[in-house]
Amino acid sequence: MDELAGTSVAVIGAGFGGLSTACYLADAGADVTVVEKTDQIGGRASTLERDGFRFDMGPSWYLMPDVFEEFFASFDSHPSDYYGLTRLDPHYRIFFKDNEGRRPGRDAPGLNVDTDGDTIDVTPDREQVKQVFDAYEPGAGDVLDDYLAQAKENYEVGMEHFVKTDRPRVRDWMDPKLAEYARGLTLLGSMQDHVEQYFDHPKLQQVMQYTLVFLGGSPDTTPALYNLMSHVDFGLGVYYPEGGMGGVVDGITALARELGVEFRTGHPVSAIKGRRGGFKLDTEPGDAVLADVVVSDADYAHTEQALLPAQKRQYDADYWDARTYAPSAFLLYLGVEGDVEPLAHHTLVLPSDWDTHFAQIFDDPAWPDDPAYYLCVPSKTDDTVAPDGHSNLFALVPVAPGLDDTPAVRESYRDLVLDDIAENTGVDLRDRIVVEERFSVSEFADRYNSHQGTALGLAHTLRQTALFRPPHRSTALDGLYFTGANTTPGIGVPMCLISGEVTANNVLADAR
């Protein structure tokens, strides 16, 4: 396919959205150059190497393998041509911080109830998971089957007709066929309302809602349609790619190079000038990039507010300040002597009342007093990410974007997190840390030009979903397009891969 032969395209940013767009446009015959601010390809999916440890700095969950398969199939290839996959068992482990609501005398595979709180494993074995649910709430195992059947239907219909199909205008949603597609889907209401229809126990509700972290929302504000994420979790599985998410970046980069894409790293873009057929990107090294078409995978607000003159912006500063942003994060990358039993590859530590944590993110921004957080230990699966006799671990606490993260605040919060890990998982890291790096709100803002230092982008609230997200095609500057998490379909690596295809299709449609 050479529909774009003779067309030059500059892609700003080498995150998954930019990589995906670059591949599709190069495959269509365009001469594609990706211009990346940092010295690494991958955007937020960059890696950190220190003293024999290798950390994925951003996304670490390989979910929705079908999306990756479809992406590579678009280029007559397969993920296995570039990296291997290991299915995780358990998918993840959850430590609940207290005993509220536990049922003494009940036991099930993957459920441990002791004086320190409940610990459960979610595994690929559905029957095991149902026994865990029954241990908390009699009959909840069978209810889980019903819930996941609805989630699977939402996933299959939602992905085909609402996620992968670009509908940027109101009239696009007036198609009579949509009513047929949507029949029976859970479209309205919040995830909290939806989950409460199935499960009474608050801990089971948390199990069904934890994936909202990947969407940057809370149970009260995320549309119920996103119960499809439970099918992603329980139905499609959780995997670890060879080399971590950095290995996936390497694989897609290799594919892009095979398609003819050129990469220029260490090239921050300082201005976008011109229009379709005559763009000029000014870069801080001083060498300009010329192109017929520009696609921005950089932060959407940064692109408009910092790289474009006022008359070529779709939105003003007030628009961006009024948006609801997904959380930022407080991250600790830790190289640790010895093992970190009983942590799993993916571990969640949840308080009994996580409403307070969500309120401190979305309603009254503050550093969480009793945080819900995520621990990743890839050395459980991959012995190349840490030296012998050591463990590779990072801790991620979702926090409100825009928080003041001074050195004193970070030091104090680091101690709080390490104390909390020791108290609630039994793993004391404090005297065994040999490598430590921190990353938080200010680094997301500085490294990625992320508005308010959000780690993910625009949250998936009802008013920021589908056509209510900023468009792929600029309405103010002909020839400028956008891709990535702030556009549709939204947040997450698989969504960014799909976003890249949608953006490329917009470029192709305009070229025709």
Quick structural gist:
The protein has 512 residues and is an alpha/beta fold. It is 33% helix and 19% strand.
Helix content: 25-40%
Instruction: Note the beta-strand portion.
Output: 15-25%
What's the helix count? 15
* Biggest β-sheet strands, sense, barrel: 8 strands, mixed
β-strand number: 20
CATH architecture of the largest domain: 3-Layer(bba) Sandwich
What does this structure look like?
- The chain is of the alpha/beta class and 512 residues long.
- The chain folds into 3 domains: 8-85 and 242-315 and 470-511, 3-Layer(bba) Sandwich (FAD/NAD(P)-binding domain), CATH 3.50.50; 127-236, Guanine Nucleotide Dissociation Inhibitor, domain 1 (Orthogonal Bundle); 324-448, Polyamine Oxidase, Chain A, domain 2.
- 33% of the residues lie in helices and 19% in strands.
- An 8-stranded mixed β-sheet has the order 7-8-6-16-17-18-15-19, sandwiched between helices. Strands 10-2-1-14-20 form a 5-stranded parallel β-sheet, with helices on one face. A 3-stranded antiparallel β-sheet has the order 11-12-13, with no helix packed on it.
- The longest helix has 24 residues, at 140-163.
- The protein starts with 7 loop residues before the first strand and ends with a helix.
